[in-house]
From TrEMBL:
Its EC number is 2.7.13.3. It catalyses: ATP + protein L-histidine = ADP + protein N-phospho-L-histidine. CDD domains: HATPase_UhpB-NarQ-NarX-like (cd16917). GO terms for molecular function: kinase activity. It holds the Pfam family HisKA_3. It comes from Streptomyces camponoticapitis. SUPFAM superfamilies: ATPase domain of HSP90 chaperone/DNA topoisomerase II/histidine kinase. This is histidine kinase. InterPro entries: HATPase_C_sf (IPR036890), HATPase_dom (IPR003594), Put_sensor_dom (IPR025828), Sensor_HK_TwoCompSys (IPR050482), Sig_transdc_His_kin_sub3_dim/P (IPR011712). Residues 305-395 form the Histidine kinase/HSP90-like ATPase domain. The chain crosses the membrane at residues 95-122, 134-160. The lineage of its organism: Bacteria, Bacillati, Actinomycetota, Actinomycetes, Kitasatosporales.
Length: 395
């Protein structure tokens, strides 16, 4: 009950404040249509409405200070800027009648009290009239019509004020809050940025693991293998079973090193850290079973996760061209397309690449889709085969 009572004076203040701001907007309209004042004006109303309704109102970033052309361009492209401007007439159309209703009720309540208690002390021409053009000319009117006016308008203000204030506040938040589509777009942007950050952190962790394995574990295994080799040579006169155990241990260490090198190359190719994407792809093309040419454009900074995906895509595509496509030559083109990295591998093989026959295309697709990229495979029977990949580089 106490909370309900506290809402009523708050609603009255809100309506009177809205009336004042609507009147101010009529006078200051040429100033408020500018992006920065319109944004500040709208945000102030959003905070007032959220405070009245008891709902959180997230902050919005202020528009950047720029020239007139950029301001008009923002009005065409930024839905928030258009909402801020549209809020101006909506606020004036709603706040003026709502606020005037509150002023009429409160003003006539005061008039009723004034007429009921002081009519006798005022000159005849100064006695205020009640609603219905009723003149207080005696105690009978003062003690009947005036209390009736006070009671009626107090009840109207008591019960009607809060709904009017809440209605205006809801209109305000509805007009100035992003739509469902805009909220979804914003959510997708946040998820895309956080995913890119997570992928970069993952790639950095893979690089750290690769360095630790290469410089730590692999070096220790090499040392153990060397010691086992020396031990085997120095124990030439040892029993056969001892020399056999040493030989098996030495072979086991060699196999472990081979597997470790494969794990390192699969996790994060060391050549990417040493030579960058362009050098890594050039080395990859030089070592594959198909004569391949690499055309590497100006790609700018590329996230580590995107570099790794591009490297594995080219490696798998060239391997397919050699093993399945029987291609006499291949070409790799890498360039930047807007905010993405474009990788295109073409070979002059027999074509007919089928993702369901285990040609590695499914693996390429999984890696690319993990970064929200796209894969287009064109491989008619007789060739040529083209694998076109685009991976977003921005957040």
């Amino acid at each position: 009950m106490g909370g309900s009572r506290a809402q009523r004076p708050r609603a009255a203040r809100y309506l009177l404040g809205s009336l004042t701001t609507a009147a101010t907007a009529l006078v200051a309209l040429p100033l408020l249509v500018l992006p920065a004042p319109a944004h500040a004006w709208a945000d102030w109303h959003r905070r007032r409405a959220g405070l009245l309704l008891g709902v959180p109102v997230p902050e919005r970033s202020a528009p950047e200070a720029d020239g007139p052309r950029a301001r008009w361009r923002r009005l065409r492209t930024d839905p928030h800027a258009r909402r801020d401007l549209l809020w101006l007439p909506v606020h004036m159309v709603t706040a003026l009648p709502f606020g005037l209703a509150a002023v009429v009720c409160l003003g006539n309540v005061v008039t009723g009290w004034w007429a009921m208690t002081l009519w006798w002390a005022l000159p005849e021409e100064a006695v205020p009239k009640l609603l219905g053009d009723i003149t207080v000319d005696g105690w009978a009117v003062a003690l009947t019509a005036a209390p009736a006016q006070i009671g009626l308008l107090t009840a109207v203000a008591w019960w009607g004020g809060p709904p009017l204030a809440r209605a205006h506040a809801r209109i305000c938040l509805t007009m100035l809050s992003p739509s469902a589509a805009q909220r979804l777009t914003r959510r997708v942007e946040v998820l895309t940025r956080t995913r890119a950050e997570a992928l970069d952190a993952h790639a950095a962790e893979l690089r750290r693991i690769e360095r630790d394995l290469h410089d730590g574990v692999q070096a220790r295994l090499v040392a153990v293998a060397m010691r086992l080799g020396v031990a085997g040579e120095s124990l030439a006169d040892a029993p056969d079973d001892v020399r056999e155990l040493i030989r098996q241990a030495h072979e086991g260490v060699e196999e472990a090193m081979t597997e470790l090198r494969q794990v390192i190359r699969t996790a994060y190719p060391p050549i990417l850290a040493d030579r960058g994407l362009g050098g890594a792809l050039t080395a990859l093309a030089a070592g594959c079973g198909v004569p391949a040419r690499v055309r590497f454009g100006d790609v700018g900074p590329v996230p580590a996760a995107v570099e790794a995906v591009a490297y594995f895509v080219v490696a798998e595509a060239l391997s397919n061209a050699a093993r399945h496509g029987r291609a006499p030559r291949a070409e790799v083109r890498v360039g930047r397309t807007g905010a993405g990295l474009s990788v295109r591998i073409t070979d002059d093989g027999i074509g007919g690449a089928d993702e369901e026959r285990g040609t590695g295309i499914a693996g390429i697709r999984r890696r690319v889709l993990a970064l929200d990229g796209s894969v287009l495979v064109t491989s008619p029977p007789g060739g040529p085969t083209t694998i076109a990949v685009e991976v977003p580089c921005g957040s």
